[in-house]
Write a structure and sequence with these properties.
single chain; Rossmann fold; 2 domains; 3-stranded parallel β-sheet; 10 helices; binds guanine
Length: 298
C-alpha cells in the first residue's frame, strides 16, 4: 500500500506556481490576485478561506478577503461581486460555500464573471468541462486529477465508483474521469443516497472516490484488494484530546481499509491540500487569461 501524499504533491504544484509567478513579476506583468468572499462565521469555512489566503501569499499572489455578516441580504452580496467583476486587478473570485439561507447560491455563482470563475462552478465553466473544452475545473476534482497524475496511476479502462453526486465534487469528478484523457478513460459509476447494493458496486471498483461527507463510511468489506481509494471527506468531529476541540475525519475507515489498497489518500494530508493547490493553478490561469469566455475554442 502506498499513501497518496497531498503534502508532497501540493508542495510540488505550489513550488512550480511560485516560480512561474516570480517570472511574471520579473517580466513586469501583473501579479495574480484572488478575491475571496466569506459570508458569516462558519468555523470550517473560516479555516478553509484562511488557508486559501495563506497559500496565495506563499506562492506570491495578491489576495483580498472580503468578510460579510451572516445576515446580509442578497443585493449586498450581488453588489460586492459586481464590483469584483469590474475590478481589473482581480483575476479570480471565490465565494465560499455554503451561503446563508436567504441567499441563492445558484444566483451568486451565475453572477461571477466566467473569466474569473476560479472555483469552476459557473454553468459556463461546467458546460465547457462536460464538452472537454479548456476551462476552469472545480478545485477538488482538479486536485484529485493532479494527484493521480503525479503518482502515474493507471486509469484507462478502470472501473471507478464515485460515492456522492455533489456539484462540487462527485458529479464533476465522474465526468472528468470518463473523459478521453489522462487521467480518465474510466468506466464510471456514480452512487448516491438512493443507490441499492452500494457494497456490491464498490466491490467491483478499481478506483473509489468517496465524497459523501459521512465519516468512516467506506469500510474494508466494501473494498476490493488492490483498489485505489481517494477520500474526499473532511468532516469535523468532536475530539476533546485536540487543542481545537475537534478532529478532521474522512469518509473512509482508513485504519481497516488502507491495508487492502494499492494506493490511498489520508485525511488530513490528502485531497484537502490538493484542492488549494488546484485553486492556485486556476487563479494563475485566470491571470494569464487562459480560458477567456468571450473567445470560444474551436
Ligand atoms: N465549500 C466547500 N468546498 C468549496 C470549494 O471548493 N469552493 C467554495 N467556494 N466553497 C466550498
Amino acid at each position: 500500500m502506498q499513501i497518496l501524499d497531498g503534502k508532497i504533491v501540493s508542495q510540488a504544484v505550489k513550488d512550480a506556481i511560485k516560480i512561474k509567478t516570480e517570472a511574471l513579476k520579473n517580466a513586469g506583468k501583473k501579479t495574480p490576485h484572488l478575491a475571496a468572499i466569506l459570508v458569516g462565521s462558519n468555523g470550517a469555512s473560516e479555516t478553509y478561506v484562511a488557508s486559501k489566503v495563506k497559500n496565495c501569499e506563499e506562492v506570491g499572489f495578491k489576495s483580498s478577503l472580503i468578510r460579510l455578516p451572516e445576515n446580509i441580504d442578497e443585493a449586498t452580496l450581488v453588489a460586492e461581486i459586481e464590483q469584483l467583476n469590474n475590478d481589473a486587478d482581480v483575476d479570480g473570485i471565490l465565494v465560499q460555500l455554503p451561503l446563508p439561507k436567504q441567499i441563492s447560491e445558484a444566483k451568486i455563482i451565475n453572477l461571477i464573471h466566467p473569466d474569473k470563475d476560479v472555483d469552476g462552478f459557473h454553468p459556463m465553466s461546467i458546460g465547457k468541462m462536460v464538452l472537454g473544452l479548456p476551462t476552469f475545473i472545480p478545485a477538488t476534482p482538479y486536485g484529485i486529477l493532479l494527484m493521480l497524475e503525479h503518482y502515474k496511476i493507471e486509469t484507462k479502462s478502470k472501473h471507478t465508483v464515485v460515492i456522492g453526486r455533489s456539484n462540487i465534487v462527485g458529479r464533476p469528478i465522474s465526468i472528468l474521469l470518463s473523459r478521453n484523457a489522462y487521467p480518465g478513460n474510466c468506466t464510471v459509476t456514480v452512487c448516491h443516497s438512493h443507490t441499492h447494493n452500494l457494497k456490491e458496486i464498490c466491490l467491483q471498483a478499481d478506483i473509489i472516490v468517496a465524497a459523501l461527507g459521512i465519516p468512516g463510511f467506506l469500510t474494508a468489506d466494501m473494498v476490493k484488494e488492490n483498489a485505489v481509494v481517494v477520500d474526499v471527506g473532511i468532516t469535523r468531529v468532536k475530539d476533546d484530546t485536540k487543542k481545537s476541540g475537534f478532529a478532521i475525519k474522512g469518509d473512509v475507515d482508513f485504519t481497516n481499509v488502507a491495508s487492502k489498497c494499492s494506493y490511498i489518500t489520508p485525511v488530513p494530508g490528502g485531497v484537502g491540500l490538493m484542492t488549494i493547490a488546484a485553486l492556485l493553478m486556476n487563479t494563475f490561469n485566470a491571470c494569464e487569461q487562459k480560458f477567456p469566455s468571450h473567445k470560444m475554442e474551436k
